Amino acid sequence: MADTARRFAQQKLKPGYRSREAAGCIERTLIQEMGALGFLGAELPQAQGGLGADCVTSGLLLEEISAGDFNVGYLNLLVSLCGQIIATHATPDTSIEWLPQVIAGTALPALALTEPHAGSDAARLKLKARADGDDYLLDGEKTSISLATQADIAVVFVRTGAEADGAKGISAFLVDLNSPGISRSAFDDLGSRAVGRGSIFFDGVRVPRRHLLGEANRGFVQVMHGFDYSRALIGLQCLALARTSLDETWRYCAERHAFGKALTAFQGVTFPLAECETQYQAARWLCLRTLWLRDQGLPHSAEAAMCKWWAPKLAAEIVQQCLLTHGHGGYSSSLPFEQRLRDVLGLQIGDGTAQIMKMIIARHMTGAA
Ligand SMILES: Cc1cc2nc3c(=O)[nH]c(=O)nc-3n(C[C@H](O)[C@H](O)[C@H](O)COP(=O)(O)OP(=O)(O)OC[C@H]3O[C@@H](n4cnc5c(N)ncnc54)[C@H](O)[C@@H]3O)c2cc1C
User: Fold this and answer.
1) Could you tell me if 103 and 120 lie in one domain?
2) Stated pTM of the model
3) Ligand 1 centroid distance, CA of 353 (Å)
4) Between the CA atoms of 122, 124, 125 and 129, what dihedral angle is there, to the nearest 10 degrees?
5) What pLDDT is stored for residue 221 in this prediction?
6) Same domain, 87 and 136
7) What is the best residue among 81, 351, 361 to mutate for testing ligand 1's pocket, by most ligand atoms within 8 Å of CB?
8) What is the total count of domains within the chain?
9) CA of 361 to the centre of ligand 1 (A)
10) Any idea what the CATH number is for the domain that residue 331 is in?
11) Ligand 1 atom closest to 353 (CA)
12) How close is the Cα of 318 to the center of ligand 1, in Å?
């Protein structure tokens, strides 16, 4: 499956990496093709349109897709993250209504947690839901949401209890983003412009009670466990860019000559790349092992946090090293390194910053988790 995904990504995704940035979106036909080929949410249950594969397999597919176009890899990430949340916490009716569409690439999912005043400290969120008969009415704003401009549905974290209750007063809902009362605006981002990060505004949006994910007021505690999965996937997504950049750079060094020799003859050129190779391998194995732990049903929160703080940072450093090794050409938009660097920087913040990840690791090590 990974071989098929690699061929697809190299032939169909890689050539459009730059033009998708200019367009500010990912082509729907392409996404549906990915769905039909089984590249999205492969680990989700067969009964709901997935392949029932393991999380390691899904990670390998995401890695191949991201090597073709890092931003298309966001789709794999969000389908897996939201798909697992829906499969685990939605009612059977809600799940069967939406999950097959998500996996087929006909309904794009987003995850809406961050608010203007609540990012790292997400439990302070304010978006309010009030009960109205068999429905809830949602009012407030989510911001910094990946795929905000393109998504059809979102897993939205909402305050159903008192603000003083913190995390204990938060529920998660599946919201149809084409509902009346929803509006969106796009950010002018440094990178990953094809993903369309932005804000989603809720003005009396009616959501049926059966769209509750998990129990009322327990959504934060129950659903947030899904992030242990996305953190390992993000590591692989970022490292895929590093791998592609390293492969291209080794080839370039063999072809480019200076002072009468190929660049590969100079240890000043090859030693930094050798260090990148070593760290790349270690980080990739950490991500794959974290997915394997998940597949075995073993604890992996600390490992997932390690993947999330280290792999995106390392990938950015590797891409920067590859850019520098390409000399003046690396700095130009005629080569993809500058776009890759801009793109990969975002995921040092998205899904939680390094500081928050290190807090999670420290809590586990000190027994406070
Ligand atoms: C590319 C990208 C994609 C994103 N996609 C999504 C998405 O799809 N859905 C979504 O809900 N959100 C998304 N986000 C938002 C992201 O999750 C938040 O930006 C992130 O959690 C940090 O929150 P903040 O920006 O409000 O920073 P703040 O919480 O205000 O933090 C600012 C700085 O202070 C540091 N800090 C905060 N508290 C502490 C502490 N206790 N100790 C040490 N340092 C601390 C942080 O690490 C950070 O460096 C995305 C962000 C980006 C950049």
Assistant:
1) no
2) 0.97
3) 6
4) 130
5) 83
6) no
7) 351
8) 3
9) 17
10) 1.20.140.10
11) 47
12) 23
Q: Which atom of ligand 1 is nearest to the CA of 347?
A: 1
For residue 315, the CA-to-ligand 1 centroid distance in Å is 19
Ligand 1, residues at Cβ distance < 6 Å: 110-114, 119-120, 144-146, 192, 197, 346-347, 349-353, 355-356
The per-residue pLDDT for range 15-71, each reduced to its tens digit, is: 999 999 999 999 999 999 999 999 999 999 999 889 999 999 999 999 999 999 999
Reported residue count of the chain is 369
Atom of ligand 1 nearest to the CA of 147: 8
105-136 confidence digits (pLDDT tens): 999 999 999 999 999 999 999 999 999 999 99
For residue 122, report the distance from its CA to the centre of ligand 1, in Å.
9
Q: Is 182 exposed, middle or buried (0-12, 13-18, 19+ CB in 10 A)?
A: middle
CA distances from residue 51 to 57, 329, 339 in whole angstroms, order as listed? 10, 43, 33
Query: Which domain covers residue 356, as residue numbers?
Result: 224-365
Pair 254, 343 in one domain: yes
| pLDDT of residue 226 exceeding 90 | no
Q: How far is CA 77 from CA 134, 276, 340, 368, in A?
A: 32, 25, 18, 29
Do 44 and 86 lie in a common domain?
yes
Are residue 236 and residue 338 in the same domain, yes or no?
yes
Same domain, yes or no: 312 and 353: yes
Which secondary-structure segment (H or E) carries 207? strand 198-208
Is pLDDT of 164 > 90? no
